[in-house]
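Q: Could you write out the predicted structure for this multi-component system? I'm mainly interested in how the pieces pack against one another.
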Amino acid sequence: MAQVSASEIKVPPLKKLTNYPEKLAPGHRLCAGCGASIIIRQIYMVANALGYELIWANATGCVEVCTTIYPYTSWRSPWIHNAFENAAATISGVEAAYKALKRKGKLPTDKKVKFIALGGDGGTYDIGFQSLSGALERGHDFIYVCYDNEAYMNTGIQRSSATPKYANTTTQPVGSKSLGKEQHKKWMPEVAAAHGIPYVAQVSPSHWKDFMEKFKKALLTEGPSYINAFCVCPRGWRSKEEEGILIAKLAVETNYWPLFEVENGRWRVTYKPKNPKPVEEFLKRQGRFKHLFKPGNEGRIQELQEEINRRWEWLNKMEEMTREE
Amino acid sequence: MKPELIKEVTYVPYSGNMAAAEAMRQINPDVVAAYPITPQTELMQFFAEFVANGLVDTEYIPVESEHSAMSACVGAAAAGSRAMTATAGPGLAYMWEVLGIASGMRLPIVMTVVNRALSAPINIHGDQSDMMGARDQGWIMLFSENAEEQYDNLIQAFKIAEDERTRLPVMVGMDGFVISHSIERVRLLPDKAVEEFVGEPKVMYSLLDVDNPITHGPVAMTDSYMEFKRQQREAMMEAYKVIREVGEQFEEAFGRKYEHIETYKTDDADYILIIIGSTAGTAKYVIDRVREKGIKVGLIKIRTYRPFPYYDVMDAIEASNCKAIGVFDRAETFGAVGGPLYSDVATAMHLRGKSYPMVSFIYGLGGRDTNVHHIEEAIDKVVQKAAGKEVPLINYLNLNE
Ligand SMILES: Cc1ncc(C[n+]2csc(CCOP(=O)(O)OP(=O)(O)O)c2C)c(N)n1
Ligand code: SF4
Ligand SMILES: [Mg+2]
């Protein structure tokens, strides 16, 4: 893998980053407090700092619907929406066209261009899974970014395979005979890593330095990268709009959302909370888990904690196993 | 760069799949994304050989599904490159969602469809239910009678698709196995001549133009969606002219005539058969045979299926002595009268305020043989219908009942 030495290329300080022109124009219809626009803007900061032009393929979902209502668009970069399940296949075609036309001398050679496929968890973990897997396996030069808000939000909070166990959704609602979703969340970045691609990372916009470092690596990677980004959804999670980054921080501090990367097969947990907080801290700020705090459901929270511990231990084991001698 | 292989018109024994692959080599598209399915697989294998041996400059994407094949073509075409693919039957069905996206986004993609039956029961053999099922997805649809027509139609397709008046994708169908796998004589055109005929692509609103960023495929709400669809209809009407013009240019360059329909002995015909695809060839042979017995039968072969050439069909019928018509459908439309072609011909008559006795024939489903005898049998029914005798409205050829 032709990795440019990432450590030599520095992401500039925050003051400089916030001075770059915004490429996601304001006026889009994403809800107040939506994590998705924060993720996109952080991506743009790194791309701007490193001098990359981004070309996007966006799966159907909140971001797509809220940013491109004809005749308006929020995108100051080339952007394409094809369908819900095919962002990765679409970007494969764009990237192939780029290679073909460049070879024929039909494109400028002085531009640094990177292709990004952007999808929600539904467009990534579920319906777009096959198309994503195909594109990763074929090795196209692109970054797949999943903004994971843990349900189909655009269509009204339906469960996905990214929805955590016991979350309340409209297709597995809490009721007298139901505690919400019955299955644990899919470990999607791990699945992406199983493709043996050069770079995989899980990020949270609350830990922006970690986010930027990882996105920088993805930009500098030749071949496919997969980034799984924690995306707060106040609307679907029944959380306070102003608490988005706080909830994201708690997701990391409770180890619910471990920050890790897989670089050419080496696993590394990039942030290890000194004293991980109990998962309640993360759950209690979200209405989707409200029922778990009713008397009699204590064991359920414990169950979620155990799943968190299981994944955390597994990740740390992977880190150990693949550590450089 | 792609080497020059064929320097003069060359006669070769080729199957439809070989002819289609050869056309693709000569067109030398920027991107090909395809997924194998019988009876198209062989076509894709031929093209993969070209890629493997540096005979094309194409970026070839061996995708993981037909849905992704069409999705990648959409991305590639939006990026201003020439994109091609090929599929058959269930593969086309699997693409269905993205077919409408390709046409709705006005992307000039070109695709061969090796016509195959749809499941269930699963069946790998030829019929046209695949393209008929996709006929309202906004693609220009051409059908070929034989391998050479498939080759010629593909060479004309990009000129039709990329014209500023159309900007629509084109699919070119050939009957599975009967055309795709049968060896026939094909007159290949020189590489240079094809290159010159196809010309440089007209790039519009490229996604790769980072200095002029364009948003492709936005949401259209109730206030604008219908206008987009209205424009698509307009483009399809324009395509009617463009297909004719390109056919004329092709004839001028290479001496082979291409019109929306082909007529065979219709001028003095009392009875007319209307057929799409390879069975038109069998029908021509049968027509000659029955004419020896004094039964004057003529044939209208549909080459352009969408936009449907209503006036061409009616002109041909009205210029004949037509007393009755037999319409051949190699696809079912369950719960409706006749097959899809039957409905189109009925509409054509209605447009002229005319009414001819019509008989519907359903034939060749799932590769069922349609031979000389079956066509003779059909002609017999059309003759009876003309004589005012009772004939069932829908007739199945070579069905075990
Ligand atoms: C083929 C297809 N199936 C279903 C839908 C309906 N649909 C559109 S967006 C969506 C959910 C999107 O969820 P996700 O990918 O998580 O993105 P989010 O809305 O959460 O941002 C669904 C079910 C569709 N547009 N296309
Ligand atoms: S529903 Fe959730 S993901 Fe969608 S725009 Fe609103 S906050 Fe963002
Ligand atoms: Mg979602």
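A: Regarding packing and overall arrangement: Chain A touches chain B through 47 residues (CB under 8 Å).
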